[in-house]
Each structure stands twice: as C-alpha cells, then as structure tokens.
Design brief:
Order of helices and strands: HHEHEHEHEHEEEEEHEE
CATH class of the largest domain: Alpha Beta
CATH architecture of the largest domain: 3-Layer(aba) Sandwich
Helix content: 25-40%
CATH topology of the largest domain: Rossmann fold
Strand order of the largest sheet: 3-2-1-4-5-11-10
Strand content: 25-35%
Number of domains: 2
Number of helices: 7
Shape: globular
CATH superfamily of the largest domain: Vaccinia Virus protein VP39
Distance between the termini: 44 Å
Length: about 240
C-alpha cells in the first residue's frame, strides 16, 4: 500500500482517462453535467481541486470561465495541458488545501469533484477544506462537491469491474478498515501482466459533510448526480 499521490503518479494516472471511457468521452460527459448545475453563465473565476486530466476544467474553460486547475499529479496535469490545446486555463501542481487557502475571497466557484474529497488524509482535513472554501468564495459564491458516499458492501460486492477491453482490465477491490477509512486496491491487468497498488481513502457520510459545511456558513443544496457520485452545492451568503 502507498499514499494516494504516489498511487496515482506511479500506477493509475496512465490509465485514468481510459478507465472513464476515454478522455474525449469523459470531457463531453463533464460538459453535459456542468450544464445542469446552477453555475454562472457569464465568465467568472473558478478553481477546481483535483482537476485530473480536465474532464470538468476543460469544458468550463471552453465556456469562457477563468479556470485554475489544481492537482497533485504531474502526469494528469500534463495530460490536461495536451487535451486543452489552445484553451486558456491555469494549471497548478500542488497541495489542494494549501492552494485553496492561499487565496481568500478569490473565487465565484470552487469545485472538488471526481471523488477527490475522500483522497484527503483525514476527516479533519475535510473540515479544513470546507472552512477554506467558505473563506475562498466571494459573497454569494458556490462550491460543488461530488464524491462517492460511504457504503458497506457485502464481501462479494467489494470487487468492482471498472472497465475492460481487448488490451486491459481495471478491477477495484475495496477493503474497509473502519467507519471512516478504507483501502482501495486498483488491479490493472494488461499484456498478460498484473499490476497492483492500493491507497487509503476516506469513507464520507454526506450528512456529516453537510453538517460541517453548515458550521462554516455554507448553505447546502442537492444537485444532479455525476458518475454515481452524490453531489452537494455549498453556497456562501451574499
């Protein structure tokens, strides 16, 4: 087992876009989803934490928004740059919490989607991110969270086939540790070889997230789901 940053950089990043059906399909799906959200249509300043290869950041930038895409994976940010082409957006390779906390009252929209939130080290870090989000948003600004909620799968449900084709198969095995933590094992089988790597991941209860967000002055609203994830909108008071 390793940490999430190392896991992505050395194991998962190279197949991540493929696992979502390919970069083009994932970007098109991201564009359709963000169009369902109550986000500003006029260009505004947005920051995405855990932007990956740009499935959400690229459509938002193409719509004219000033987007900053933050990720801990240099490999995924390099892929984002290639996919974005001439679309203007800023890429930041760094810690999500530190990057968000460095700019107060700077953003009309903060996004943390794609199941990024459970990659934080602890529940305390999740609460720190919520507090920083409240401080980073301008009055009336909105944050978007999308993550897979905590569940208790039966033993046979802990194996999840993510994608398979004639070249490779990606299977995930979920190993619960306790009520708030699990180990996620990604098994990549290709060309007759099996590569296995695991990393710790939080198990988040949406009710707990809502309660903590409200403590920091953010009004919580539900929103259309995304790739099987629960989606929560957090609004700062005007």
């Amino acid at each position: 087992m390793t940490d999430a940053i190392t896991h992505y950089e050395t194991h998962l990043a190279r197949v991540y876009a493929w696992s979502l059906g390919g970069a083009s399909a994932a970007i098109a799906e991201g564009a359709r989803w963000v169009a369902t959200l109550p986000l500003p249509r006029a260009p505004v300043r947005m920051i995405e934490l855990g932007a990956g290869f740009g499935a959400i950041a690229i459509p938002l930038a193409r719509a004219g928004h000033a987007v900053v895409a933050v990720d801990t994976s240099a490999a995924l940010l390099a892929e984002l740059a290639q996919l974005a082409g001439t679309t203007a957006l800023e890429r930041v390779h760094g810690d999500l919490l530190a990057t968000l906390g460095a700019r107060r009252a700077a953003w009309e929209v903060v996004l943390c989607v794609g199941d990024t939130l459970p990659h934080l080290d602890s529940l305390a870090d999740v609460e720190r991110l919520l507090a920083s989000t409240a401080q980073a948003l301008v009055p009336g600004g909105v944050a978007v969270l999308a993550y897979r909620p905590r569940r208790d799968p039966a033993p046979h449900e802990r194996f999840v086939l993510v994608r398979t084709d004639e070249q490779r198969t990606l299977t995930v095995f979920l190993e619960p540790v306790d009520d708030t933590r699990q180990i996620v094992w990604d098994l990549i089988h290709e060309r007759g070889e099996l590569a296995v790597s695991g990393y710790p991941k939080l198990r988040l209860d949406p009710t707990w997230v809502s309660e903590r967000a409200a403590r920091h002055g953010l009004r919580v609203e539900d929103a259309p789901g995304y790739r099987g994830m629960v989606v929560q909108l957090l609004r700062r008071a005007p």
